[in-house]
Specification:
Blueprint (H helix, E strand, L loop, with lengths): L8 H35 L11 H8 L1 H33 L6 H31 L12 H29 L2
Organism: Phenylobacterium zucineum (strain HLK1)
InterPro entries: DUF2975
Protein name: DUF2975 domain-containing protein
Length: about 180
């Protein structure tokens, strides 16, 4: 089975990435609506005047701003994943076209690396904010993910490999 070009493994993966991209957009939209509802319900309790709440639901309403912040963090995380999948879709489009060392792929891979690093740093920031905002919750423990940082380094190395491949391709095109 071929790795590049139409009808190859890369074209199959491009289709999967297209489906995932659409599903991520649906997830971001759903999270945005849920966040909006949480904000409205937490700052305007009159909207819930006709609803009876048990103790657990009342706790959720009182912590509405914290819940909204958590939902916004989840939406930002999904947005980061959305950017990564979007870049991968464009990279796989060049692979399907049979042009793996397209110069734009270098910038796309670098963006993926930056987003991956940002998501990991965001995870640390979210842990710190959670520990500050909810001191009584001790279920979340900070952890350093060696796998995540290794992935970031691998993506940056791949970007440099693609940069060199694009340079060699350009050089070969100029050779008579």
């Amino acid at each position: 089975m071929r790795a590049l070009g139409p009808g190859s493994v890369s074209s199959f993966l491009k289709i999967i990435l297209d489906v995932v991209f659409g599903a991520l957009w649906i997830g971001v939209a759903a999270l945005a609506l849920i966040t909006l509802a949480a904000v409205l319900l937490s700052f305007n309790p009159d909207l819930l005047s006709g609803v009876t709440l048990d103790s657990e639901a009342g706790e959720v309403v009182r912590r509405g701003p914290v819940l909204a912040a958590g939902l916004m963090a989840a939406a930002l995380y999904l947005a980061g994943i959305l950017v990564i999948v979007g870049c991968l879709r464009r990279i796989f489009a060049t692979l399907t076209a049979g042009d793996p060392f397209h110069p734009d792929n270098v910038a796309r891979l670098r963006l993926i690396g930056v987003i991956l690093a940002g998501l990991e740093l965001g995870r640390y920031a979210l842990w710190a904010l959670t520990a500050w905002a909810l001191p009584d919750v001790s279920d979340v423990e900070p952890s350093f993910s060696l796998t995540a940082w290794f992935s970031v380094l691998v993506v940056f190395v791949l970007a440099e490999v693609f940069r060199e491949g694009a340079r060699l391709r350009r050089e070969a095109e100029l050779t008579i």
